[in-house]
Design brief:
The protein is of the alpha/beta class. It has helices at residues 2-22, 44-58, 78-90, 103-115, 146-158, 173-188, 207-215, 227-240, 258-261, 263-266, 281-293, 302-319, 327-336, 385-388, 392-395, and strands spanning 27-33, 61-62, 65-73, 94-99, 119-122, 139-141, 164-170, 192-199, 220-224, 247-250, 270-273, 339-341, 345-349, 355-356, 359-364, 377-383. The protein contains 15 helices and 16 strands. A six-stranded mixed β-sheet has the order 2-3-1-4-5-6, sandwiched between helices. Strands 8-7-9-10 form a four-stranded parallel β-sheet, sandwiched between helices. A three-stranded antiparallel β-sheet has the order 11-15-16. It is globular. This is Leucine-binding protein domain-containing protein.
Amino acid sequence: MHRILRAITTAAFALTPSLAFAQGAPIKLGVLNDQSGVFADYQGIGSVIAAQMAVEDFGGKVRGRTVEVISADHQNKPDIGLAIARRWFDQENVAAVFDLPNSAIALGVNKMAAERNKVFVGSGAGTVQLTGPECTANFVHWTYDTYAYGHGIGRAVYERGGKKWFFITADYAFGHDLELQATEEVKKLGGQVLGAVRHPLGNNDYSSYLLQAQASGADVVGIANAGGDTVNTIKQAAEFGLTKKQKLVGVILGMNNIPGIGLEAAQGSYMMVPFYWDMNDGTRAWSKKFQERHPNKNMPNDMQAGVYASVLHYLKAIDAGADPADGKAIVAKMKELPTDDSLFGKGTIRADGRKIHPMYLLEVKAPSESSGKWDYLKVVASVPGEQAFRSLADGKCPLAVK
């Protein structure tokens, strides 16, 4: 009798994990970004919508468990962002965090996710430190990084006559990285960097910085910031008359900047991105669905598209057998599986967590070329993923050391 009871008990325990998994709590995914500040249009509610669309397109469940998307505004403040991530991981059982513009916060969450064996996928985060010395087995860098943007745009402008540069740079990790990457490319090609000035995030008055740029003698003023800071810098530069003698280059100029700057002022500018809503039938179809759901009827940018594609690939990894409670196992499976979606096409994820896909050089259209709102850009050239991103060896990620 005792042997029978023991056998029944053993069988019951053997079944418990699968039963618990099938009937378990929802898998929670957190979208952490700026929803009220300078990056709100870049990510904000749009990234939340993109994550929700990915979950819905996957069917709302993975291996019998529902998937829930939650979000929060980190306000571009490291203490607030890290407190949210800590609460999500420790108290609310959030399995993965996505997006995370603001590299200072991203670096902190990266360490936290590794310590707790959670998953962090950066779509809005830019710093290359995340796939360099700060890389972890729990992180994937999806959309872009400062190397791809800085080196790509540095080369494109240099080849079009921009030999002498001066930088106006956001004074935090992301801005510093952006300036560094562009500087490396310009100098490698034989150009000069005549100086740089740093400004706080969310600055309103750029007059003193612009005067220094104007007096520098540079033929290119590199704007190494993002979001509302880029819009304000370029608009004020036009008011100061810098555009009459100097070329303004937003190192991370994006589609969402154009309405604020104006097509007249922005025409002819270049940007380097891995996604544009009007590139092909697949990007157009998804983007129109996104636009219908966006409260301001915005088209998606590359970082919001990156949230969609990365959430989709995360769910594919779990569906392929990775344990939802084991962050390292999920990221390992994400690296093992080839990436394939309608927005970025086919790609791979390297050992250091870097997602590899092509980058595209886009030019802002003249007003006469545009058919209306959001018809701002045209593809000028493409760069293969293997060339667009920093090499695995140069990044010095410990995970890549054999």
